[in-house]
Amino acid sequence: MTGWETFLTAAIKVVLAFALLLNVTILVVWFERKVVADLQNRIGPDRAGPWGILQTVADGIKLLFKESVTPRKVEFGPYIAAPIAALIPALLIFLVVPIGRPFTLGDRVIDLSGMDLNIGLLYILALSSLAVYAVVLAGWSSGSKYPLLGAVRASAQMISYEAAMGLALVPLILFTGTTSLHQIVELQSGTYLNFIPAWNWILVPSFVIFFIAGFAETNRAPFDLVEAESEIVGGYHTEYSGFRFAMFFLAEYINIFNISAITVTLFLGGWNGPTFGLGAPFDWILPIVWFLAKTTALIFVFVWVRATLPRMRYDQLMSFGWKRLIPVSLLWIALSTVAIGLRRMPPSWWPFV
Amino acid sequence: MVEVIVFAIFALAALAGGLVMVSARSPVYSAMGLLLAMFSMAVFYVMNGAHFVAAVQVLIYAGAVMTLFLFVIMLIGVDRAVDRTETIPYQRPIVYVLGAGLVALIGIAVLDVAAAFDGSLQVAWTTGRPSGNCTLDCVGTIENISGELFTGWLLPFEATVLLLTIAAVGTVALGQFALKPRDEAPEGVE
Fold first, then answer.
1. Is the CB of residue B94 less than 8 Å away from at least one CB of chain A?
2. Cα–Cα distance between A252 and A259 in angstroms, integer?
3. What is the ipTM of this complex?
4. Contact B67/A126, CB-based, under 8 Å?
């Protein structure tokens, strides 16, 4: 490929990925409101569009045209930068996630993801660790006490659960021997015994730890102390209104989608699924459908947990992170390392054979 | 050409970040300046093909170290501007001497590179992608880095591991054995 072709392909992919994320956010917000309403015996939004599906669009337009009130005591630079800092990592993380089988167009193969990075997993961890800056900057620059309390809680919480999140991925890297998301997905293709999909079942502890840490990283219930309404009003975004608030909101829901998509990619087979031998167009349409279906299932879990569990206390949150999640993941690393090491040894070294 | 433009942008950003870090009144702005400088350095690593180091730079420095800085700054009072009176009288002269030394070192390195372009002198301290055709084997992928680390540089690697373990154990020890009441630090000393 020439330089221009590479550039054009990348540009088109990035624009498509961002468009997908923004549209998916609209659906995720609506999905959450509908499901929570169902779980609470309510009807939920049902006025705008069929089943209220346009409710989020209406809310978004309202926020866009609302005045962005700037309180007098804010530090203006960081105050403006914080919503942007929330949105950028959320948008960038998704670029490494493969959403479907690579397909051939003419003589070149096109991956259905922004890029196939050799350091894919590290890229995800690095960018998700940047998400905390938005919260910290917003809280500090608002010049108000509730945002500051929210920001202090957020930084402690996100550092703690990031450690567990990173540790949960160590067995995965050892098991698959790669950090490229494309390769991880391809290694999960095929089936055991012709009907059990060959996902990373063996890494279920990693999956559980990663997903729990994902709840904390996205500041979702039951770990939503960062924006606990009953204690600290809105938390870090108390002083934000209009479209600046909308950007925080957008970033939160994009992050939910991202965590679900990444979990699906790492542990639940990514876009792998039966194509029923239907032939050319379905060979790459169905994988996208499978990917979106699995991701939706995990987003449902996010919503389900939110509607079910009460918010944790701050000390419970911290002791759960440091005294349960991290030791368990360390133990799991030790166990899985031994198992993987034994598997790789030549049979003559294996004491049990 | 693209490389030069990207380098120019991020070199300026790194310099600006460094200047903000040393000159800002508020520690939060200093931290943000340092963050900008570190982020720009990650871009330099990517430009030199060291993707792994770039990711680790962002993950460790921007993601963990700077977040901790900000956390501490917030906990110990955010609105206090730093008191700028010098408490160590000989600090300034030392800084001038060390600064001059650093400039001299950088100058030597730059001259060295300039000489290398003439082909007359061996480059001593330059980093970056080796010239000529660079295939995958000179790119800083995880496979290459770990290969080097666990074959050629195992002993220094293990020594670093030992050092970090000692540091971690020391931190736990310092936190675990609290001072007895009569040993408590006097007023005003943390």
1. no
2. 11
3. 0.78
4. no
pLDDT digits (tens, 9 = 90+) for B116-133: 555 554 444 444 444 444
When CB atoms are compared, the residue of A126, A148, A162 closest to B74 is A148
Cβ separation A119–B55 shorter than 8 A = yes
* pLDDT tens digits along A282-332: 777 888 888 889 899 999 998 999 888 888 888 888 888 888 889 999 999
| Separation of alpha carbons B33 and B19, rounded Å | 7
Instruction: For residue B124, give every residue at least 6 positions away whose Cβ sits within 8 Å of its Cβ, in sequence order, or none.
Output: B109, B112
For residue A103, what is the DSSP state?
E
Task: Name the minimum distance, in Å, from the CA of B123 to any CA of chain A.
Answer: 30
Give the Cα separation of A261 and B38 in Å (integer). Answer: 29
Give the position of tokens 């154990």.
B169
Give the residues across from A104 on adjacent strands: A109
| pLDDT of the residue at B132 | 46
Question: Which residues lie closer than 8 Å to A351 by C-beta, 6 or more apart?
Answer: none
**C-alpha span between B115 and A313 (Å, rounded):** 64
Q: What is the pTM of this model?
A: 0.82
Cα-to-chain-centroid distance, residue B43: 14
d(CA A340, CA B66): 35
Q: For residue A254, give the nearest of A226, A285, A209, A220 by alpha carbon.
A: A220
A54-59: Cβ within 8 A, 24+ apart = A55/A30, A56/A25, A56/A26, A56/A27, A56/A29, A56/A30, A57/A26, A59/A29
Which of B:13-32 have CB within 8 Å of A? 28, 32
